[in-house]
Amino acid sequence: GSMIGILGGGQLGRMLSVAAARLGYRCHIYEPGAGAPAGHVAERVTTAGYDNEAALRTFAESVDVITYEFENIPTSALDILETLKPIRPGREALRVSQDRIIEKDFLTGLGLQTAPYAPVNSENDLRAGIATIGTPAILKTCRFGYDGKGQARLDAPDETGAAWAAMAGAPSVLEGFVDFSHEVSVIAARGLDGSVACFDPGENVHREGILRTTTVPARLTPAQRTDAVLLAAKILGALDYVGVMGVELFVTPGGLIVNEIAPRVHNSGHWTQQGCSIDQFEQHIRAIAGWPLGDGERYSDVVMENLIGDDMDKVPALATEPNVAIHLYGKAEVKTGRKMGHINRVKRG
Ligand code: ATP
Ligand code: MG
Ligand code: MG
Question: ipTM score here?
Answer without folding.
Answer: 0.99
